[in-house]
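Review this chain:
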Amino acid sequence: MLVRFCRRLLWGQRDCRYAIDVEMIFTQTSERIKDNVIQFANYLKSNGKDVVIYTYTSFLKEYLQSINDSFELWIAEYGVKKPNISAQYIGFQYSENGTVLGINGKVDLDEFSESILLGITSNFTLSSCNIQSSNQFINGYNSYRVKSMQTLLNGLGLKDTADNVLIVDGIFGILTEQAAMKLPIAQIVGYHNDAYTDWLEIQFNQKPDHFFEISMDNIIKTFQKSKRLIVDGKVGIETLMEILKQP
């Protein structure tokens, strides 16, 4: 059965490394777990397939010590900026409760180096949320910013009060406002790892990193002060509307 399974793995072309997910012990000793992982990984490597070991920080430390000497790592650890390990890694899963454009519900969020790819450079961008320089305003709102917001809202599954998906037309009308009011309050305490955070960072020409941190808090407060809003670092609907009015 295992041989047949492995043969199926070897069919076809891939653009990423094979990931071996190791998270459970099944009453095995740490030595047996590591031996089994190494045996399976070496089988794939002997057939010309590059692999990466996926696990979480505590499991790595308890059961897979030094396995990184032979194989690349993809580490899961939530609520931190980087895994608490000394070993090098090519993948970092930092959340299991993220949201991304085009998918309803919670998803895992990861960061990878190009080493996860097999000779292919990733060309993924946040182009759908990027702000283009423009003087096109509709009813006082920057139409490019509004379009990117409408795209974000649709991707997050946030609709107007009649449960309609927004038309991405760059017009900040009552329907877009209704959907935008369903966004959570973005702030430094307890809010990170979300497409909305990335979108906000892009609005202020910051590199999106999924975390609403002190630097972003300061940017929002400075912006609120310049617009004579309540200076609390919280992005509610009033602050959001002012952001959409910027050139």
Notes: The beta strands are 18-21, 51-56, 72-76, 91-98, 107-112, 137-138, 141-142. Residues 18-116 form a domain with the TIM Barrel fold (CATH 3.20.20.80). Confidence is low (pLDDT under 50) at residues 120-133.
